[in-house]
Amino acid sequence: MESQWFVIHTLSGQEQKVKENIDKRIKSEEMQEFIFQVLIPTEKVSEIKKGKRTTSVRKFFPGYLLVNMLLLDEKGQLMEKPWYFIRDTAGIIGFIGGDRPVPLRKEEVESLLAQIQERGEKVKPKVNYDVGDQVKITEGPFLSCTGVIEEIDPDRGKLKVSVAIFGRNTPVEVEYSQVERA
Asked: DSSP character for 72?
């Protein structure tokens, strides 16, 4: 039998607590042969607060866990021991799919694991702006100019802002930390 990935719905904000609880109970209740891995897909996000850069961890899917486990037998029937183990864990609402959980497809799992790997390695700027938002530049040569965001480049952490210079709209490139909402 091959293990499969399932999505489990948890109480909001309880993902880490539920993961730790499952990990502890796997050992104490000897469930290693059924449950292999519990994941909370996260990414690192940086933002500027009160002039200081802070890095925090943000969940891709708040309220959900991914679990690699044996839940279905060769005939596709639910196996009771792992089913009740997960269902009886504090903080769990249930499996996605209800009483008939649906495993993730192989392509979905590969894509998710690749995203987790990619996003876990690099810090992504937290974007609080949208194209068309009006902002005021707080640093640099265009200090105190106001303009409209034309483009957002989250990979580089930069914005292209159209500001009026000498009566003409001119695009200038600034970092997220150099602007605030106007």
From this structure: B
Q: Is 150 exposed, middle or buried (0-12, 13-18, 19+ CB in 10 A)?
A: middle
3-state secondary structure 121-182: HCEEECCCCCCCCEEEECCCCCCCCEEEEEEEECCCCEEEEEEEECCEEEEEEEEHHHEEEC
Whether residues 113 and 23 fall in one domain: yes
Containing structural domain, residue 163 = 134-181
22 φ, ψ (degrees, to nearest 5): -60, -45
CB 65 within 8 A of CB 95: no
What are the tens digits of pLDDT across the range 9-23?
Answer: 999 899 999 999 999
Do both 140 and 119 map to the same domain?
A: no
41: tokens are 């897909």
Question: What CATH number is attached to the domain comprising 157?
Answer: 2.30.30.30
Residue 13 token pair: 């904000």
Contact 162, 170 (CB under 8 A): yes
Rg (CA), the chain: 23
Task: Encode pLDDT of 34-79 as tens digits.
Answer: 999 999 988 887 776 665 677 778 888 899 999 999 998 888 888 9
Instruction: Kindly state whether residues 56 and 32 are assigned to the same domain.
Output: yes
